[in-house]
Design brief:
Two copies of one chain form a homodimer.
Chain A: H1 2-22, H2 27-33, H3 47-58, E1 69-74, H4 77-83, H5 89-94, E2 96-103, E3 105-106, E4 111-112, H6 116-133, E5 137-138, E6 141-142, H7 148-155, E7 161-170, E8 187-189
């Protein structure tokens, strides 16, 4: 009886530990269920959450291993207003935005890096997925090629750093269903 | 005694079910530990794996909800050779490549879609992460803006569809450690 009792306790302890692991959503679930969040409660992200998002961003692949990403985290509403000609209401509601920027040159001769945009896009997607993974809402706002000069000026960016995307991150107000975008007709085999 | 016995059995059953869930890697683990895979065993991906990767790709966000992504899955070695001026050895070793393409125009007037590249990059990152999540290796090979005309010709793509990235997917030969790219000096607050 004593043995069975200890076995039960051990199984329960193991199970609790499993549950804690299972509480982290799987990568496929996050990828498939992520959607753009544009309504926020106003509760701000914590420094720990922000670091997770930035770590996820910097884990992106990069062409020629240039890691050209740079970040400006903005929570000042006046700065947000100055960054865009289109109104910063969503950003102010979220409370925090991550401006994903790219260093557009590389090497000793400051050659153009043809892949800085691709790298910044990968960073942006990683941040969106990480936000979903930790229960936050976020959305990809394209800055480049629309109003990068205004954002650059508001943030005082150097000439060789271009703001690429602006990602508000916050606590979602309400919830939505992800779009079903699966379309097998978009898949071809060996030839178009 | 009977009750304790049944409790133990129930806890064990629950635990097995938890373990099965936990076997799916978490989103953050996958994002942080993904790396570029260039060595493959030659074992080919299955149709079910391929569908998971393509579903993950199509779950990406897209500017103005254009969903401009198109895919050509290539497993024919001669086609691979014809797609690039740089040699297709890695692709042939993986056995399968996914060519992520973008429709570069939109709407009734065939206006240029300024966000097709960003969308294709998000698709590519999703595919890389999904590959890692299901235990496959993959790497982002930039096609655009380097040799898109050669790939377009080899695949017979329409004029308004541009090949963006080429992602070999397969079973990794060996294993590596992900790069540590975390660099807090790349983070600024409110101003550069």
């Amino acid at each position: 009886m004593k043995h069975i009792f200890f076995a039960a306790i051990a199984a329960l302890a193991l199970c609790v530990s499993c549950q804690q692991q299972a509480a982290q959503p799987s990568a496929l679930d996050v990828i498939m269920s992520r959607y753009s969040v544009r309504s926020y409660t106003g509760e701000k992200v914590t420094e720990a959450q922000l670091e997770t998002l930035l770590r996820a961003g910097m884990a992106a692949p990069s062409g020629m291993n240039q890691q050209p990403w740079r970040f400006v985290v903005v929570n000042d509403p006046e700065t947000m207003d100055a960054m865009t000609p289109w109104g910063a209401d969503t950003w102010k509601a979220a409370g925090t935005v991550i401006v994903v920027c790219g260093k557009t040159t590389m090497g000793e001769n400051n050659d153009a890096n043809p892949l800085w945009e691709a790298d910044c896009a990968a960073v942006t997607e990683n941040i969106l997925l990480a936000a979903k993974a930790i229960g936050l809402g976020a959305v990809w706002n394209a800055c480049y090629p629309f109003f990068q000069d205004k954002t650059r000026e508001a943030l005082g960016l150097p000439e060789d750093v271009t703001p690429y995307s602006i990602v508000p991150v916050g606590v979602e107000q309400g919830s939505e269903q992800p779009k079903d975008k699966w379309d097998p007709e978009k898949i071809h085999r060996n030839k178009w």
